[in-house]
Design brief:
- The chain is mainly α.
- The protein is 92% helix and 0% strand.
- The longest helix is centred in the middle third of the chain and has 47 residues.
- The chain starts with a helix and ends with a helix.
Amino acid sequence: MENTWFIWESNPLFQDMLRRSITRTDDVNQSNLAAAQKIIQSRMMRKKRNKILRKIRNGN
């Protein structure tokens, strides 16, 4: 088992594949993070807007 792993590990094609899969997951994580941040931002904005609207409705 260890011998085959060594063969795979020293294979440039395998190295490239590994590198690509790692960067791909990084890209996915980045876009997920961006999406999560947008959702949080929109929620914050909604809360602020509702707060302002409530003040206006209450006449304060």
